[in-house]
Amino acid sequence: MKNTKELYEYYYSLLSGVDERINKLYSKEKEEHFHRRLEENGFSRRDFLKWASFMTAAMMLPPVFESRIAKAAAIKERTPVIWLHLAECTGCTESFLRTRAPDIATLIFDEISLTYHDTLMMASGKRVEEHLEKAIERYSGRYICVIEGAIPTKDGGIYLRVGPDGETGYHRAKRVTEHAKYVLAFGTCASFGGVQAAHPNPTGAKGVRKALGIEVVNVPGCPPNSVNMVGTMLHILLFDRTPPTDLLYRPLWAYGSRIHDYCERRAHFDAGEFVEEWGDEGAKKGWCLYKMGCKGPLTYNDCSRYRFNQGINWPVGAGHGCIGCSEPGFWDTMAPFEEPNDKAGIRIPGGKGVEATADEIGTFVAGATAAAIAIHATGSIIRGSTGKSSKKEKE
Ligand code: SF4
Ligand code: SF4
Questions:
Q1: φ/ψ (deg, to 5) at 264
Q2: Does 8 lie in the same domain as 26?
Q3: Rounded to a whole number, what is the largest CA-CA distance in the chain?
Q4: Last residue of a domain, one of 242, 277, 297
Q5: Residue nearest to atom 5 of ligand 1 (CA)
């Protein structure tokens, strides 16, 4: 799939399967319950329909899916989700759940899923272990396993132990993912190792895919946008398959374009208007942050489109450049964060004229990031989605 037309054709071919699935699982009672919850949280039906329309567009689905997205919230059985926390700071969960007030995405997520979540459960110790065991047994082959955090692999994984029996994070992740239907890596640590895997990586930390050798959909970001996570979950719920991804296994609809492509400061980049020093006139006028180290031209994510905290703001909007947090190895390849990356090969406009070469960044050589950029830049995408259960990769 190389363009929107092909993507639309792909989704149209799945339409009847989606209808069959929704009709089988739909419940009027559940729908009414969900709308009562929306009202209690200050959202009208109209707000919800607007949200469904927004998600349809964000996920690059044809408009005919709007009503199906809205109906997905009224599915009578929760989609079981087992959410594990490994080597991480819990910032991804915080970002997802600790917004100003529960937004529609959070409510949907709460309604359609979450069977087990290390951070949110009241219980602890042995009771939690029993709950986890029961969830794995009861939903075996049907649940989605979400992993937040990297997996330390050195010395048998001893640098991360979890739970009352001191199980290694590696063993726990292996045990839970073995019975999962889909595995999602939430955040850059789970996707690519994150800060734990930064040089010299003393614990041998890796992303889930690399550590376990299984199929995983990566939803990177430090933290990722809740839109990216809810959209990926909705995709699985509607289609019973993962979304098409790029070669870094990131959903294309969320990670298919650069921060730079939709940045509100882009006109200043094209006009050669740059912040030269923190607090200068350019900073006050909202000019481009490239010279202050912004990695937006090298970073694939949708922050510039959807922002954070219910769309209130995002890092570049607040005055700091993007640090490239959704790219693999960004702590090593994107630093120093407040200086332009001299290997990126980006010629900046000199005060007049439009951008000439920021799109020629296939020459940037910095490990996997470079490969990803080159791949995107040539437009030769993409991995198809999969409806198969998690299984060993043949890489
Ligand atoms: S370099 Fe950064 S601040 Fe400038 S337009 Fe690109 S993304 Fe925006
Ligand atoms: S703007 Fe850049 S650094 Fe900030 S969250 Fe988005 S991808 Fe990460």
A1: -70, -15
A2: yes
A3: 66
A4: 242
A5: 266
Instruction: Calculate how far, in angstroms, residue 308's C-alpha sits from the geometric centre of ligand 2.
Output: 10
| Cβ of residue 366 lying under 6 Å from some atom of ligand 1 | no
The span from the CA of 220 to the CA of 251, in Å, is 10
321 within ligand 1 shell (Cβ under 6 A): yes
300 alpha carbon, closest ligand: 2
| Closest ligand by atom to 265 CA | 1
316 lines ligand 1 (CB under 6 A): yes
Domain enclosing residue 31, as ranges? 4-72
pTM exceeding 0.70:
yes
Asked if residue 103 and residue 60 are part of one domain, the reply reads no
Bridge partners, 145 (sequence order): 82, 183
CA–centroid distance, residue 318 to ligand 1 (Å): 12
Q: Compute the radius of gyration of the chain from its Cα atoms.
A: 21
The length of the chain, given as a count of residues: 395
pLDDT grade for 38, boundaries at 50, 70 and 90: confident
Give which of 149, 162, 266 is closest to 211, Cα–Cα.
149
Residues 330 and 189 both lie in one domain:
no
Same domain, 157 and 304: no
* Total domains in the fold of the chain: 3
Residue of minimum CA distance from atom 1 in ligand 1: 290
Do residues 42 and 131 both lie within one domain? no
Per-residue pLDDT of 197-247, as tens digits, reads: 999 999 999 999 999 999 999 999 999 988 898 889 889 988 999 999 999
> Are residue 129 and residue 183 in the same domain, yes or no?
yes
CB distance 293 to ligand 1 below 6 Å: no
Taking the centre of ligand 1 as the mean of its atom positions, its distance from the CA of residue 88, in whole angstroms, is 28
Question: Which pLDDT score is estimated for 377?
Answer: 41
Q: Does residue 120 carry a pLDDT above 70?
A: no
pLDDT, residue 301, reads: 97
According to DSSP, the β-strands at 161-162 and 167-168 are antiparallel
Name which residue sits closest to atom 2 of ligand 2, judged by CA: 322
Please give the single-letter amino acid code of residue 293: G
Confidence of residue 364 (pLDDT cuts 50, 70, 90): very low
